[in-house]
């Protein structure tokens, strides 16, 4: 799909932004994913043992699963069950299977974690604003989860080509504290 030449205007709605963001592609997604994972690894080395929510990437999202098992942290990944999303502690990639939307997710027999116990949530998104705004895919899974974990640090994770100054938000949208960036 060809890249649109101009970004949507300041009054554009979420639908227009989703269309534009879907057209933005990282030219080297595997390399960029590794660089983002390395940047996050450096950040995590300064933290005490933490409970971290991670995600398994869709084809147009950065893959950060190489961090699963990184000590001394505990890793939680989402599993979709109908309209709800639950996080389960995962120790290695063998704990995952293909689930909803063709995304790898924890086996359903793994015990779910409590979102209020999470210290850090890495949030996927179609795009992010530098102001902390996040635009998901429109089903609200992460917005509902973030309301349940108000004390967790929220970090948006996407490819650099999908970061803009600001995205439209609604009252139920939860902003990110910061964005994961390559350093």
From TrEMBL:
<dbReference type="InterPro" id="IPR024185">
    <property type="entry name" value="FTHF_cligase-like_sf"/>
</dbReference>
<keyword id="KW-0479">Metal-binding</keyword>
<dbReference type="InterPro" id="IPR037171">
    <property type="entry name" value="NagB/RpiA_transferase-like"/>
</dbReference>
<dbReference type="GO" id="GO:0046872">
    <property type="term" value="F:metal ion binding"/>
</dbReference>
<protein>
    <recommendedName>
        <fullName>5-formyltetrahydrofolate cyclo-ligase</fullName>
        <ecNumber>6.3.3.2</ecNumber>
    </recommendedName>
</protein>
<keyword id="KW-0460">Magnesium</keyword>
<keyword id="KW-0067">ATP-binding</keyword>
<comment type="similarity">
    <text>Belongs to the 5-formyltetrahydrofolate cyclo-ligase family.</text>
</comment>
<feature type="binding site">
    <location>
        <position position="61"/>
    </location>
    <ligand>
        <name>substrate</name>
    </ligand>
</feature>
<dbReference type="GO" id="GO:0005524">
    <property type="term" value="F:ATP binding"/>
</dbReference>
<feature type="binding site">
    <location>
        <begin position="134"/>
        <end position="142"/>
    </location>
    <ligand>
        <name>ATP</name>
    </ligand>
</feature>
<dbReference type="GO" id="GO:0035999">
    <property type="term" value="P:tetrahydrofolate interconversion"/>
</dbReference>
<dbReference type="GO" id="GO:0030272">
    <property type="term" value="F:5-formyltetrahydrofolate cyclo-ligase activity"/>
</dbReference>
<dbReference type="GO" id="GO:0009396">
    <property type="term" value="P:folic acid-containing compound biosynthetic process"/>
</dbReference>
<dbReference type="InterPro" id="IPR002698">
    <property type="entry name" value="FTHF_cligase"/>
</dbReference>
<keyword id="KW-0436">Ligase</keyword>
<keyword id="KW-0547">Nucleotide-binding</keyword>
<dbReference type="Pfam" id="PF01812">
    <property type="entry name" value="5-FTHF_cyc-lig"/>
</dbReference>
């Amino acid at each position: 799909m060809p890249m649109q030449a101009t970004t949507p205007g300041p009054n554009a709605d979420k639908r227009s932004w989703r269309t534009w963001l879907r057209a933005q592609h990282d030219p080297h997604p595997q390399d960029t994913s590794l660089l983002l994972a390395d940047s996050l690894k450096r950040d995590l080395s300064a933290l005490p043992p933490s409970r971290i929510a991670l995600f398994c990437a869709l084809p147009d999202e950065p893959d950060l699963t190489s961090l699963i098992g990184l000590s001394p942290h505990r890793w939680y990944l989402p599993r979709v069950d109908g309209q709800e999303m639950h996080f389960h502690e995962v120790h290695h990639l063998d704990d995952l299977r293909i689930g909803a939307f063709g995304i790898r997710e924890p086996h359903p027999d793994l015990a779910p974690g409590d979102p209020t116990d999470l210290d850090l949530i890495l949030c996927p998104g179609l795009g992010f604003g530098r102001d902390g705004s996040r635009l998901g895919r429109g089903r609200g899974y992460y917005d509902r989860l973030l309301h349940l974990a108000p004390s967790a640090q929220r970090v948006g994770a996407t490819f650099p080509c999908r970061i803009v100054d600001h995205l439209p938000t609604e009252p139920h949208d939860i902003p990110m504290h910061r964005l994961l960036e390559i350093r």
